[in-house]
Amino acid sequence: MNKSIAKNLLKLKSDLPNNVTLVAVSKTKPVSDLMQAYNVGQRIFGENKVQEMTHKLALMPKDIQWHMIGHLQTNKVKYIASFVSLIHSLDRIKLAREINRQGERHRRIIDCLIQIKIAKEEEKYGFSIEESFKFLNDMKINPLPYIRIRGVMGMATFTQDQQQINDEFASLEDFYLKYKDVFGLEVLSMGMSGDYPHALVRGSNMIRVGSAIFGSRAAH
Ligand SMILES: *Cc1c(COP(=O)(O)O)cnc(C)c1O
Asked: What residue owns the CA closest to ligand 1's atom 13?
C-alpha cells in the first residue's frame, strides 16, 4: 500500500481554494492506487484512455465521476457516453457531432470543455482561440442538443520558463473572462502537477493533477 497517495492528496486539497475542483489524474495507475485516493474522499478521477477508463469503471465504486482528459477518437465515444461526467478534450467539430449522437442514443446530455491551444510549442490537439469563438457561436445559433459546453481547457508548454507558462495561462483566462457570460461558461480547466500554482493565479477553477498525487508514471 502506498501511504503517500492519501497524504499527497490531503495536503494538496488543504492548499486549494474552495472554488477549485481537483481532478485526480490516475492514468497508468492501478485501481489499488485510485482506491487510496477514494478512501480519503476523492471522487473525481481523470483518465486519458477510453479502455483504461472503462476497465477502472467496472472495478471501482459507482459514485465516482470520470473525466476524460485525453485525445478522444471519434469511434470510441460510444464506450464512455453512458457514464462520462466531463470530457475536457473536445477539440474538433467532428468529435462534437459524435458526442451529440451518442448522447442522444443514451438520452443524456454530455458535459464537455473545449480544448484550446495555448502553448507555443506545436500542439497536436485543440481549437485555436479564433476557432473556439466560432465554435461556441455556432453552437449558440445551432445547438447540438446532447452536448453542454461547460467551459474551456488548456495546457501550457512544458518548459522552465515561468513567464511563458504564465502568459499562456493568461491567454486562456482572457478568453474565459471575455466569453463566460456570453456563452454560459463556468469551468476553466488548467494546471497540472508542474504548473498548477501558476494556473490558480490565473483564475483556474479546475486543476488536473496526476504525478503530484500518485507519483511519477513510467515512461510509455
Ligand atoms: C497526464 C495529464 C495531466 C496530469 O499530469 P501530471 O503532470 O501528472 O499532473 C493533466 N492533464 C492532461 C490532459 C494530462 O494528459
From this structure: 69
